[in-house]
Amino acid sequence: MDRSDAARSAQARLEEWIRLHGDKVLRACYLWLKDVQLAEDAMQETFLKAWKALPEYEQRAQMSDLAFLLRIAVNTCRDMRRGFWFTRVNRAVALEDLPPGQLSVCDEDRSLFLSVTQLPLRHRQILILYYYIGLNLRECAQALGIQLSSAHHRLKRAEACLKTTLEGENTNEAQVPSSH
């Protein structure tokens, strides 16, 4: 295969990844960064980095395509979160800033979504990858660059943290205001 055939093959592979996984990568980036424009930038950077790393990935191919892309997305979002601007801006998610798909869900699902976005990043990441994106634990570990046992432990801790958060919200809602 000459150089131009390899370039066309890489371009076709990238286009296929964007078609198959672009939405999942964008959603994951949004949930990590809590900003639509930053998520779009992170997604573009993810696919650019994936394209550059494609020859090495094809030689090793030790993970699924989606796990490979999300590994790059995790690192890209992590780098963006470390940036000067990101650390100086309020990242709270307002209801009107939610993606359109989230606005059409019931209040309970929206509450769950908002609770997940408020968790610490390490808990939010594993929950997003496992439940929202649909990766198995091995793929989650690959995407996060951690051992399988660490991914399992992190998922259990994240579930417990989310449960505590949700139970606290239910307790607060159940309390009746006093009539003073």
Molecular structure report:
The chain is mainly alpha-helical. Residues 101-105 have low confidence and may be disordered. It is built from nine helices and no strands. The chain has one domain (3-170): Butyryl-CoA Dehydrogenase, subunit A, domain 3, CATH 1.20.140.160. 26% of the residues are buried. Helices cover 78% and strands 0% of the residues. The longest helix is centred in the N-terminal third of the chain and has 31 residues, at 3-33. The chain is elongated, with a radius of gyration of 19 Å. It has helices at 3-33, 36-60, 65-82, 84-87, 100-103, 107-117, 121-133, 137-144, 148-174.
**What is the radius of gyration?**
19 Å
Shape: elongated
How helix-rich are the residues, as a percent range? over 70%
Largest sheet: none
Helix/strand-derived category reads mainly alpha
> How many alpha or pi helices?
9
Spans of at least 5 consecutive residues with low confidence:
101-105
Q: Calculate the mean pLDDT score and round it.
A: 80
Distance between the termini: 81 Å
- The CATH level-2 architecture is identified as Up-down Bundle
Query: CATH superfamily assignment?
Result: PhyR, sigma-like (SL) domain
Number of DSSP strand runs: 0
Name of the CATH class:
Mainly Alpha
Which fold name corresponds to the CATH topology? Butyryl-CoA Dehydrogenase, subunit A, domain 3
Tally of distinct domains: 1
Order of helices and strands: HHHHHHHHH
Question: Which range does the strand content fall in?
Answer: under 5%
